[in-house]
Amino acid sequence: MGAVQWKKMALRLNGKSIPFEGWPLHTTLLDYLRETGLTGSKEGCAEGECGACTVLLVGPSESGSRYVPVNSCLILLALLDGQEVYTVEALAENGVPCEAQQAMIQFGGSQCGYCTPGFVVSMFAEQYRPGRVGACDPHALSGNLCRCTGYRPIRDAALSLGPAPEGKWTRRLLEPAPAAAGVATLAEFFALRQANPRAKVIAGGTDVVVECNLKGKRFPALINVGAIGELRSVEETNAQVEIGAALTLSEIERTWRNAPVVFAEWFQLFASPLIRNRATLGGNLATASPIGDAAPLLLAFDAQLRLVSARGERVVALDTFFTGYRQTVLAEDELIASVILPKPFPEHIRFFKAAKRRLDDISTVAAAIAMNLDQRGRANQVRIAYGGVAAVPLRARAAEARLEGRHWEQGMREAVQELERTLSPLSDHRGSAEYRLAMAENFLAKFWHEMEIPA
Length: 455
Ligand SMILES: Cc1cc2nc3c(=O)[nH]c(=O)nc-3n(C[C@H](O)[C@H](O)[C@H](O)COP(=O)(O)OP(=O)(O)OC[C@H]3O[C@@H](n4cnc5c(N)ncnc54)[C@H](O)[C@@H]3O)c2cc1C
Ligand code: FES
Ligand code: FES
Known about the structure:
The protein is of the alpha+beta class. The protein has helices spanning 29-35, 99-106, 116-127, 151-159, 168-174, 186-195, 208-215, 249-255, 261-269, 273-276, 281-287, 294-300, 397-403, 408-422, 433-451, and strands spanning 9-13, 16-20, 54-61, 64-71, 84-86, 200-202, 222-224, 234-236, 240-244, 304-309, 312-317, 322-324, 327-328, 335-342, 348-354, 365-373, 379-387, 394-395. The strands form 5 sheets. Strands 2-1-5-3-4 form a 5-stranded mixed beta sheet. A 5-stranded antiparallel beta sheet has the order 8-9-14-10-11, covered by helices on one side. A 4-stranded antiparallel beta sheet has the order 15-16-17-18, with helices on both faces. A hairpin with a 2-residue loop joins strand 10 and strand 11 (312-317). One FE2/S2 (inorganic) cluster binds at residues 43-46, 48-53, 71, 73.
């Protein structure tokens, strides 16, 4: 476990500047908080599942700043140099609970209390969300789990909250957020990469830090790519949309205002708001998980990836990016810079996900299906993409071919037969091979029925 040696670091924690140095590289923010006496944030799982460790970062918004709730168990202290963090201890002022805390008391939202600080922090962030109109959105709490109270009283507490009260917390939001921590430019990254070829690239850390916490993984050094400017914009032209690989999913959702509706459905089904506030597209694709949710959706858009290194750049089709179980064409020194979605987008496109829980869970099987229809109701540019049915996310090309240029009734039976012939899912603790295959077929049928496409 190497100690952090880059330079002296400081954090603005609950309004005070706190220098920190000498902590082991893999120390999480949660461990640091609890070691230094701020024990309000709890550890339930250390893998981003329960939300008991929720804290606030201060991030940018159009009007200044926003409070960004995140899982402190999945953020490494070393990546927080210059950042502003608030924990549950800061929310009450002079012993007077904040409105979220008062509402939890009033509506009986707490029993054992273990989950309560996390719920309060998420609720607080939702109450102060810039531009919020109407009631708080209970989905903002979907990354927080409670084992004993039941969700009704907690939901009622959230729904009871009015506009954010005037005071120091609203005034803070009018000021700019601190600059993001990490490498700022690609040139800087290339130099660091060359000097530290064994360093691990990290963006949101929602995969990497789970490995550190649960599998005891240790890296000699980390390079934080989450702040690289060239990887952090959404650029739209008539020919394509290019999405920076280091934008978090929440940032993409906020900045890409005219995204196709399927993205809104997809964001909701991807983990929780706490995870989406950190997780990046680049990280999701680079892990090459066969059950990652980005790949099926992006395959249905026929996406390409821009890969960069000090040697230059290349664009590869996402369809050729995954080469085997958790393997990709990405070279050691390469980064995913962006995801390119060519236009025109498909007329009909949907994303479906089967998981053990509807929200805040990883897929057992996911599907994204896209097609255009001509005036006679014949399908063209059919794309059927799956996760969870093979060692890699893939397009079911043979099934696509059975539908291409044909009416649904003509092609469906044959397309299903092709799925049965060509997909060979594995059984594991999430689902049997039979279940996965059945879901792959059902999603195709669901697509058709929910599109209400005439026969
Ligand atoms: C509780 C929980 C729920 C989750 N739910 C879902 C879910 O519903 N669906 C889903 O698909 N995933 C889910 N995940 C997995 C994870 O959140 C995603 O894979 C996420 O997108 C990873 O992004 P990151 O920025 O956090 O990656 P990191 O953890 O920072 O990095 C992941 C990997 O990508 C590499 N990397 C990061 N950025 C780049 C880049 N630009 N170029 C090249 N390599 C890079 C890193 O070196 C590392 O190997 C969940 C995780 C948790 C903890
Ligand atoms: S401890 Fe469970 S999400 Fe962090
Ligand atoms: S009050 Fe006990 S876990 Fe929520």
